[in-house]
């Protein structure tokens, strides 16, 4: 967390944390580094577009 993380608002600051939580879920279920990387990138992009 950087000191200015919430300057742009709450949602932009939470996007990486929500994406990371999704990656943890995928990691536990699949145990595949490939799917962790893919899901992290996709989740981050999708959440950034919302």
Question: Helices, strands, pairings?
Answer:
Elements: H1 10-30, H2 33-49
Quick tags:
50 residues
Structure in words:
- With 50 residues, the chain is mainly alpha-helical.
- The chain has helices at residues 10-30, 33-49.
- The longest helix is centred in the middle third of the chain and has 21 residues, at 10-30.
Instruction: Evaluate the radius of gyration.
Output: 12 Å
pLDDT averaged residue by residue: 90
Structural class of the secondary structure composition? mainly alpha
Distance between the termini: 21 Å
Helix content: over 70%
The ordered H/E elements are HH
Beta-strand segment tally: 0
Q: Count the helices. How many?
A: 2
Summarize the structure.
The chain contains two helices and no strands. By secondary structure, the protein is mainly α. It starts with 9 loop residues before the first helix and ends with a helix.
């Amino acid at each position: 967390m950087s000191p200015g993380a919430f300057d742009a608002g709450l949602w932009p600051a939470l996007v990486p944390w929500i994406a990371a939580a999704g990656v943890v879920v995928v990691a536990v279920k699949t145990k595949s580094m490939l799917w962790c990387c893919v899901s992290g990138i996709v989740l981050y992009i999708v959440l950034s577009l919302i």
